[in-house]
Amino acid sequence: MEIKRIVVKENLFAKNDEIAEENRNILKKHKIFSLNIMGGPGAGKTSILEKTVAGLKNRGISCGVIEGDIAGMFDSERISVFGVPVIQINTGGACHLEAMMVKKGIENLPLDEIKVVFIENVGNLVCPAEFKIGVDCNVTVASITEGEEKPVKYPLMYSISDVVLVNKIDLISAVEFDINRFTAFLDEIKKDIKIIPVSGKTGKNIDDFIQYIVERIL
Ligand SMILES: Nc1nc2c(ncn2[C@@H]2O[C@H](COP(=O)(O)OP(=O)(O)OP(=O)(O)O)[C@@H](O)[C@H]2O)c(=O)[nH]1
Ligand SMILES: [Mg+2]
User: Fold this and answer.
1) Quick check: CB of 47 below 6 Å from ligand 1?
2) SS3 of 33-80
3) In what order do the strands lie in the sheet with 86-90?
4) Does the CB atom of residue 76 touch ligand 1 within 6 A?
5) Residue range 67-107, pLDDT digits in tens
6) pTM over cut 0.85
7) How far, in Å, is the centroid of ligand 2 from the Cα of 75?
8) What pLDDT is recorded for position 212?
């Protein structure tokens, strides 16, 4: 009997890419610089966003935030304290944001009033890297508590990143993390990448990240 083969994955990605392109066009039309903030669970994505959103606000730069989580409102509640528009997307089980989910988020933001959109992806070092969402800049938050070799163990995530924020740098003496070893591993995966060691807790070097964003605002 003839066996039928249906390649579902490719088609799904193709449709996702199409919607990601629509997102890119909507954001471009409104001259909004957009960032996809990715990283493992608890790496410090929201902590860094709290400091970054506050810093941008102090500079008079308005932003919006889309929070992606499987369930719950914790992260959007943390961000809303800063008086910026924030949309919580609950994926209901999916371990990543897809372009259609992000599109719904974008459509609910006041696009004429903001210059920057942050999209915090679901905490996961694998799946978010596989789904384009149509942003200008992919950021991976790498916590030093995860270990130095993660770039070579999760190569796709690091290979699609434009910026790596090496977070929890305040814990460096306790964790004995060797940043040179980390950057050497990262260099094996991707050469052209901006690395900023930061602390989402103390705010150390968050200004460098803010400066990078300011320089890229359209
Ligand atoms: N010491 C220290 N703790 C941090 C730092 N950044 C975040 N944390 C702590 O790490 C934990 C997780 O931080 P979050 O900002 O919620 O991490 P997240 O990546 O947004 O987590 P998910 O959204 O659940 O994936 C919290 O207890 C934070 O206080 C840091 O730079 N230093
Ligand atoms: Mg978070």
Assistant:
1) yes
2) EEEEEEECCCCCHHHHHHHHHHHHHHCCCCEEEEEEECCCCHHHHHHH
3) 86-90, 63-69, 116-120, 33-39, 137-143, 163-167, 194-197
4) no
5) 999 999 999 999 999 999 999 999 999 999 999 999 999 99
6) yes
7) 5
8) 98
The pLDDT tens digits of the residues spanning 123-147 come to: 999 999 999 999 999 999 999 999 9
Which residue's CA is the nearest one to ligand 1's atom 32? 168
What b/e readout covers 62-72, taking b as 16+ CB neighbours within 10 angstroms? Answer: ebbbbbbbeee
Q: What are phi and psi of 109, to 5 degrees?
A: -100, 150
Q: Give 8-216's CATH code, choosing from 2.30.30.40, 3.40.50.300, 3.30.1390.10, 3.40.190.10.
A: 3.40.50.300
CA 212/CA 117 separation, integer angstroms = 14
Other CB atoms within 10 Å distance of the CB of residue 149: 12
Query: Where in the chain are the domains?
Result: 8-216
Element (H, E) at 25: helix 8-29
> Nearest C-alpha to atom 9 of ligand 1 is from which residue?
44
Q: Which of 36, 47, 75 to mutate to test the pocket of ligand 1 (most atoms within 8 A of CB)?
A: 47
